[in-house]
């Protein structure tokens, strides 16, 4: 495995985790939004991540012999959470129905906080791997002197 390929894997992980943090921030910002461009309340969004290449045994063998590019990770979709919206009784709200209920977004602050913490930890792990690879490259250059 080349040094550059290792750095690319860590960089793809950092990009994916940054997107997760951005989506969690969007969810938190819209936890009280009852009217969107589409007309309904805001729905929680989730990032769907996938390995950038096939992880079959043949690909692993090709990768081990340096004939294939490394996998990494990529975001394939930002999906809406299909869980039920939260009805809240507030007859004075402009978006209340005939019974006085307002459909509130399905955003849970605790869940978003945990997702943010998980993405931050994953981002930090990728930075650690990136820095370790950088240090190994520097040591390899020192050996060559």
| Rg measurement, Å | 22 Å
Can you give the helix content as a percent range? 40-55%
pLDDT averaged residue by residue: 88
Cross-sheet strand order for the largest sheet: 1-2
* Major β-sheet annotation: 2 strands, antiparallel
Subcellular location: Bacterial flagellum basal body
GO biological process, one term: bacterial-type flagellum-dependent swarming motility
Protein name: Flagellar basal-body rod protein FlgC
Pfam families: Flg_bb_rod, Flg_bbr_C
Short overview:
One of its GO terms (cellular component) is bacterial-type flagellum basal body, rod. The chain is α+β, with helices and mostly antiparallel strands and 145 residues long.
Write structural notes for this entry:
By secondary structure, this protein is α+β, with helices and mostly antiparallel strands. It has one domain. The chain is 48% helix and 16% strand. The strands form two sheets. The chain has a two-stranded antiparallel ribbon with strand order 1-2. Strands 3-4 form a two-stranded antiparallel ribbon. Helix 1 runs antiparallel to helix 3. It is elongated, with a radius of gyration of 22 Å. The two termini are 22 Å apart. 13% of the residues are buried. The mean pLDDT is 88. It is found in: Bacterial flagellum basal body. Pfam families: Flg_bb_rod (PF00460), Flg_bbr_C (PF06429). One of its GO terms (cellular component) is bacterial-type flagellum basal body, rod. InterPro entries: Flag_bb_rod_N (IPR001444), Flagellar_basal_body_rod_CS (IPR019776), Flg_bb/hook_C_dom (IPR010930), FlgC (IPR006299). This is Flagellar basal-body rod protein FlgC.
